[in-house]
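Task card 7
Instruction: Convert sequence to structure tokens.
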Amino acid sequence: MSNYLKRRDGFEGEKIINVPQKLLKQAVAKHPALFALFITHIGYFPKALSHFRERKKGCDDNIFIYCTQGKGHFIIDDKKFEITANQFLLVPATDKYLRYWADSDDPWTIYWLHYRGSDLDEFNNSLKIRLHNGPIQIPFNQKALDIWSTIYQSLEMGYSIENLCNATFCLYHFLATFVFIDKHILIEEKGSSDIVADAILYMKSEINKKLSVEDISGKYNLSGSHFSSLFRKNTGMSPIDYFIHLKMQKACQLLYASDDKIKIVALQLGYDDQYYFSRTFKKQMGISPEQYRVTTKKMT
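Output:
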């Protein structure tokens, strides 16, 4: 690092926006509910040879860096990390020493942003964003780059409340594509995600029937236990719980759109016992089918 000129920024093709702090404070004061988090700085540094930053007293913002090419180095407190292509680093706001720089032989290309908010500590704790988590490897994240461009273009158009708010809302989506990567990255080869997606479509097509785990898993030549494990990993729910969830969604539509008796609605969803259907509906929705129908009719 000491063998070449250190630069904070100023790279060919770079993009950078520093949002005026005064305007941010005004926006947060006027619309606190809209700016629980907000972006303070955003940038893109391509092949950023000699890029160097040192923050002896840390940073009041969360720092997010996504490296798409090359590599760089990061020191957090007393721990050193190397970050390479298709890795991201999310550093929580801290008063600890920070230093980061591009590799001299293979300088990184990075998309980065800083953000903060009134509940930043709780946000970080909830998502387990820790100081020494280090870089995380992911598949190439084109969706995030598209969202990043939307954020940048929004701020580039000026600092109206609408532009700032749009950037803030996009920030959550941007972060979600990294924190919940399996929910956003498309898998080209057919795998568990494809099986689960296909199974959900099958459930919807058979919404008027009774299905067991074995009925569904047999379509994919999988055991019931293996299929259940794949399904829960992708959706957070068991197959049967998800099927019931779909049935109750459909029940809400039928109760709202028709005047059919509850018994008929139940039969349309594969429930021979009207009272069992009503108990299941109330457990899922918090009110009985009759109450749901009356309540939704009053709202229109």
